Amino acid sequence: MGKVTLYDALKEIKKEANVDFFYSDKEVNVDRMVSANFNNADVVDALYTLLGNTYNIQKTEDGIVLISPKNTASFENEVKVTGIVTDGSGMPLPGVTVLVKGTKYGTTTDFDGNYALTVDEASTLVFSYIGYKTVEVVLDGKTKVDVVLQEDVSTLEEVVITGIVERKKESFTGAVATVSGEELQALGNLNVLESLKTLDPSFIIVENNALGSNPNRLPDIEVRGKTSVSTDNLRDEFGNSPNQPLFILDGFETTLRTIIDLDMNRVASITILKDASSTALYGAKAANGVIVVETVKPKSGKLRVMYNADFRLEVPDLTDYNLMNAEQKLEYERLAGVYTEATGGLAYIQKGLDAVYNTILAEVGRGVNSYWLNEPLRVGTTLGHSIYADGGDDAFTYGVGVNYRDLQGVMEGSNRETWGANIDLTYRKDKLNISNRLRINGYDANESQYGSFANFGQANPYFRKTDENGRITKFLDIDGIFERNDYIFTNPLYNGTLNGIDNSNNLQLVNNLQAIYTFNTKFRLQSGLQITKAITTNEKFLPPEHTDFIDVGYQQRGSYTNTRTDNFSYRLNTMATYAEVLGENHKITTNIRGEVEENTYERLGIKAVGFPLGTNGNPAYAFSYQPNSRPSTSQSKYRRVNLLASANYAFDNTYFIDGTYRVDGSTSFGSNEKYSPFWSVGAGMNLHKTFNIDPEVMSMLKLRGNIGSVGNQGFGSLSSVTIYGFEQYTNVFGQAVTVNTLANPDLKWQNTLTTSVGIDMTMLGNRLNATFNAFTKKTDPLIVKIDLPSSTGVYNYPINAGFMDTRGVEAILRFSPIYMPQDDFTWTIGVTASALKNEYGGFSNDLAGLNAQELKSASLVRYKDGYSSDDMWAVESLGIDPGSGKEVFLTADGIPTYEYDTDDIKVMGNSRPTVEGVVSSNLRYKNLTIGANFRYRVGGDVFNNALYEKVENISRDERYYNQDLRALTERWVQPGDVTQFKSISDISYTPISSRFIQRENVLIGESINMGYDFRDSKWIKSLGLSQLRINAYMNDIFRISSVRVERGIDYPFAQNVSFSLNARF
């Protein structure tokens, strides 16, 4: 470097070393001439050579170099202030800026977080660091000032992490929601998605009334509703739900199971991408939204160790069960005609029925009243541990962690063990940044050997649970009277005493390698490679003594099923980023990215039947394979490729536009439709800058909107070629071959056109924050599998048919009546809300066969133009005729009739709530936090299955099972009774009608929590801790509904109380 001005020298150093400078022109004479030559010199050393020792020079972790003159002033009341700056965990923070308020005079903390500064004793010091809340301290003569900086969630929201590119939220046109790991952990400790649903109204976990709180089930998730027809045959055994969002973990695609099992303590943030501007980056996979999860990155500095422990209690929730006791059940059977001979003329039969009745009556008189529901249940416990250690220097950082969790479900024998280990390494050298993240994780899960919880809901209360010797018998009886009358009632407790197996386990290895080379402040090149290998095994053994084999021949009793699935995938991407600032007000950022991926799935399954008594499920002891079967195999391989270009332009940080164009190629669709384009365009403006609004009144008022096209590949692998299979037999022509899968070479990609407008507001000095969004989504064409004639040998065939149009709004409003962050005292109340509806169109008569299937199976679903996927179809009922006890229907012509006619079926309800959201209140005072979050659903209809199956539709044989109490108390008995339900003695089939569709309003205690941080307590230092925090939670602690319906039919729901401990050393 020749003789140049200091300004030019700093400019050249900035370019070569990729750093930024912070200094005052009044304090540093940048016009003076300097001359020096540097060769691979350290930036700080080079600056000391240029400036001499009269300046303080500090380089922060974020690449900012602070230059300030050393203090030569003489203060009237001069003091030297020293101290240490740490983060919330007690770890030192290097590079924190410490300034005297109102001046540029100050210093920065060293590698150990220490600082020293000579100032006036009445000065106010300002401590600031990127990503942390600024702290001001009035000295008042103090010479020792230690400061703790807390992470600033609002700074997290300043950058939108999309998993591909990062954009400033201030100039981003998409609808996104970002929450921190701290916010997620404040709501619960089960998994990140259970907490996420409380924070954003667009993210909905659909309640599963059958599987309840089963720890091994995967939830159904929607972001801004559905985009696809939800039929089971639309996905193969390797596919996801076609309405499930895409999940991204640390920049790479992952599975819902991985996110569910992810250790919450590792999560740094989650971002929900909702509309075209934010999701078009993912093109063909983004129609259902994208969930971007970022884990904690290792930090440089001294070694720090973080330990987290979680303890959880799950209490079975049986409040919605309304079963009969022994006396009520016997009376129901009497009124239902169980003990009355049907013809009235066979006295010997009536005599036998009387004997049965009197035997049961005597047993009830002796006090037998068995409550079966509690038998297979327990208070489930969860115990989890995780340890993470990190450290390093500016060049190399490392992080190593392990975690383990044992979740015991509320049904005996059901549990889920998850474990994982991760190694995070980052190397920085000049312009090169290389990071590698290795993650190994797995699970071992078991289902309860008791089987479906519904078996216990059916067990009669007048049966004893054990015999006179306390043994659990295979059959239930009273003095053998039922056996003599050829009635068999199995004991639901019996199967739980056997040595059955229902296990699944998984081992997965994922390695993410990323390299970034920054040529200068304008141009950057990065590339990433992900390799995934996973093995999943499912094993199920039913012993020959199992009650499923009562009516099966000896050689067929007992079964063993084993299925192994192997998955291997790789993803490789490369992206170039160019950013330019033109003048002072024009900022342009562009990205070009390409990606290739391949996924391979292989499945091998066997089923053996017939086992000797006492065997443990070893298939070597099986008598044979299942009749007419053989080991099954399936293979699936699909490849995808895409090319992406995106750009963002901002003028004066006031007006901005986004644009994205992506082309995807996939083998999942028709061979003639291999490629499809996707795009988005968005624009917005910061109105608070346009109109120069006082920041104390309104610090943000942003208007944004966008439109774009995205796709959906959540169907598994839809074959693009016809696949044949060999049969077991031959004929004169040779080996028999059949068509296994019939391809549709012209199958088009499912394409969703999305529009979205929104407004973001921050007012009254950050006291009031609001976000409002309105959106539409039109998926055209849809992909549907239709049935083919049996002569083809193929069950179904994928076609393009119709479209789905969705419209919705969502809102988030939070207000802080108390807002004193400087004193750690805030109280915030909030409400979220979402509402949407969808409509089919363009089907014409294409899905007539599918509608016929739904009619045959007594389903509430239909696929018709002009109607919603959430509509509930049934015949309208006018209720029960008080005179006859029969149901009165209303025909399509409006005429009352006793005759049920499927031609009268019409829409009688909609399962989508009119509005759904969360009301919250959160208080923070010093180190104490208290929060309460309540979910509400207003409107929306439910099909009350308890009324349909346990009040009516009780067949002749089902009368012997326990039923809902309303089958006794609310059914028609005699003329003049005004009731909702048919005659108690009527055992005829009851078709679905509007009587069983009910409007529901719900209030749920979703999360009530309290936490305390002991970081300021001196006693934790004596334990070698820098931070200790304890949280307590109650989740789903109550549920108030306007409809009484059995919930958790196969596996009960649970109320949860849990605790967590976070310690840092």
From TrEMBL:
It is found in: Cell outer membrane. GO terms for cellular component: cell outer membrane. Belongs to the TonB-dependent receptor family. It is a multi-pass membrane protein. Coiled coil: none annotated. NCBIfam families: OMP_RagA_SusC, SusC_RagA_signa. Its main location: membrane. Residues 169-290 form the TonB-dependent receptor plug domain. Gene3D superfamilies: Carboxypeptidase-like, regulatory domain, TonB-dependent receptor, beta-barrel domain, TonB-dependent receptor, plug domain. This is SusC/RagA family TonB-linked outer membrane protein. Keywords: Cell outer membrane, Membrane, Transmembrane, Transmembrane beta strand, Transport.
